[in-house]
Amino acid sequence: MKIYPKFTGAELEKLGLTGNMPKHVAIIMDGNGRWAKARHMPRSFGHRAGMEALQEIVRSSHSIGIEVLTVYAFSTENWRRPESEINALFSLLVEYFYKEIDELDANNVKIHVLGDLSRFPAKLRELMETAIDRTALNSGLNFAIALNYGSRDEIVRAARAIVQANLTPDDITEGIFSEYLYTNSISVPDPDLIIRTAGEQRLSNFLLWQAAYSEFVFTNTTFPDFTPEAYYECIKEFMRRTRRFGKVLPN
Ligand code: FPP
To answer: CA-to-CA distance for 72 and 114, rounded, in angstroms?
Structure first.
């Protein structure tokens, strides 16, 4: 089992990571299929390679001091994929939660799952619930996995829950609305940086509400090839940008 190092200021400087470190990074992990196709391998092989890449990204997020890492692992639209691919992804998730939980827990990582889990196989649900409960009191990196997640679905569910709670129109503020979103369970700031791998430049129904002021970095690297070094390059790009939140900055 690996205990993740925490980089010192000097180590961060050596990596070029000086500046405003994002607190919350979200990643759309795309390109597993293309990575596999380029190697004449089945798509599930690409997802496995993606899972391995993800573990390195979790480790490096801890090392550089990211507070929240959110990843898009399965969207509400992914049910349209062939059953064999969906099943392979589920098996991989079972393996992930089964194999990695000890290491994640030992490194003080707190696991969250965003999305409607009711459609998942019971075994996977159980493993996820155990992982969430076991790490609930951890205070290190918050690691949120979006599964059967879709932003429009999240917003519609929030609206329904607000109606069911009998809130009056005046009660409904942006803050109150946010409390009804899946991300409320993480109780952390919105993503500062959203990275999408594999060249596509769209959000694909990911964190539409939460992305209002996020910076976007798109990279052509497919997710299985997304090494910690490639990740640090995206963070450096974020650090070069100036975020104004609609205000004018003083000269
Ligand atoms: C998108 O690539 C990726 C996914 C739909 C699944 C992401 C899953 C993982 C990285 C593996 C396991 C995750 C966890 C949390 C352990 P794609 O298949 O759409 O690639 P393509 O666009 O090249 O076809």
So the answer is: 9
